[in-house]
Amino acid sequence: MDKIEELLTRGVDKIYPAKEDLGKILKSGKKLRIYQGFDPTSPELHLGHLVGLRKLAQWQKLGHEVIFLIGDFTGMIGDPTGKDATRKVLTKEEVLENAKTYKEQASKVLEFEGDNPVLIKYNSEWLSKLSAIELIELSRNLSLQQVMERDMFQRRLKNNMDVALSEFFYPFMQGYDSVAMDVDVEVGGTDQMFNMLMGRTLMHKLKRKDKFVMTTPILEDSAGKKIGKTEGNVIALNDSPVNFYRKIMGLGDDIILKGLEYLTNVPAQEISEVKRALDDGENPINFKKKLAFEVTKELNGEEKARKAEEEFERTVQNKELPGEIKRYTFDIPELNILDILMHTGLAESKSGAKRLIEQGGVTIDGNFIKSPDEVVKLKDERIIKVGKKNFAKLKLIER
């Protein structure tokens, strides 16, 4: 596929105002300035972010100027997108702490050195310097009706739920990022479309310039939930290769085709062949393993991806013990099972440990623990297993 055509179509939902208009500019050879913003509301970039990061990488490889914007100011306000309640306010110290390793994580996909390095900017550079009168003057360019168009605000009002005034300012603040950086294109998930189009409006009114908006699809799991920190199904880019591979394998089979298109460099023709095979009823596990391997390889290299695959095959498919199991030693020959689960970190609380036992999720040497009052005798090395994939070795220190 032509590189420009691939840039404009693969892993792209829509382009505003039109794909054809942006295509003409790119084919003319003109170099553009592109950005995507990342609010540091969590210290981890995750699989959902990878869709946009890969799109930024495509722009970079074609020689365009790419900006990785850290929304340290907007992160303190809180993006209301998709929320039925106002986000928790974060301090400046919290957002900066969260963003501390963003460059390191993003460097798995983007190049921050070389002839055309990705630039890192923080939107506090301009947003924190706006005076009250400047903010009021700038806000004249947007109407209350425009902001109130958001379906989530309409839903909240209909349900007699609060809409904080700060939430009205968020789209304006994100929109002003485009003006401050004088960009040509903004990339972001489809859930950010409203905010990005606000930026397009401000660019037109303040700069007399048309900004293109490129939306990327939202990666969802089999239940239709967005894969990310909000839904609690995070697959972090800095997870160990073994855990990263395993978590992808834990997603529903309907992630296979979307994942191959959005998250890998597997050719479109090969993805079409996978679709035909799935439609014909072929077992999806090998195709999901292909997805898990390709994404793990892109982030961690082929050798680590291969080892992660081998570990998955050994511990999950063949139900063997992991190659490495952490060992815990004790100087008491008998311990309550709850104390063991807490000491090894296999449970976060005693109430959580009790639930695991009641659900039949805890075994010692392959035998189910039936009661939270059970006492475990420690002599020879014993293997405790929680769930399908969490193991620990228990060993008594001989005196």
Structural class assignment: alpha/beta
Question: What is the fold named in CATH at topology level of the largest domain?
Answer: Rossmann fold
Could you report the average pLDDT, rounded to the nearest whole number? 88
Counting DSSP E segments of at least 2 residues, the number of strands comes to 13
- Contiguous low-pLDDT stretches (5 residues minimum) are none
Q: Report the CATH architecture of the largest domain.
A: 3-Layer(aba) Sandwich
Calculate Rg over CA atoms: 25 Å
The CATH class designation of the largest domain is: Alpha Beta
Number of helices: 19
Share in β-strands:
5-15%
Total tally of structural domains: 3
- Rough outline: globular
* End-to-end distance: 69 Å
Strand order of the largest sheet: 1-6-5-2-3-4
| Biggest beta sheet attributes | 6 strands, mixed
General description of the model:
By secondary structure, the protein is of the alpha/beta class. It has 3 domains: 3-216, Rossmann fold; 241-317, Orthogonal Bundle (Tyrosyl-Transfer RNA Synthetase), CATH 1.10.240.10; 327-396, Structural Genomics Hypothetical 15.5 Kd Protein In mrcA-pckA Intergenic Region, Chain A. It has helices at 3-9, 19-27, 47-61, 74-77, 92-98, 102-106, 124-127, 132-139, 144-148, 151-158, 165-181, 193-207, 241-249, 255-263, 268-279, 285-300, 302-317, 337-344, 350-358, and strands at 14-16, 33-38, 65-70, 119-122, 185-189, 212-216, 327-330, 334-336, 362-364, 367-368, 375-377, 382-386, 390-396. It has a 6-stranded mixed beta sheet, sandwiched between helices. A 5-stranded mixed beta sheet has the order 7-13-12-9-10, with no helix packed on it. α14 (255-263) runs parallel beside α16. The chain is globular and about 80 Å long. It starts with a helix and ends with a strand.
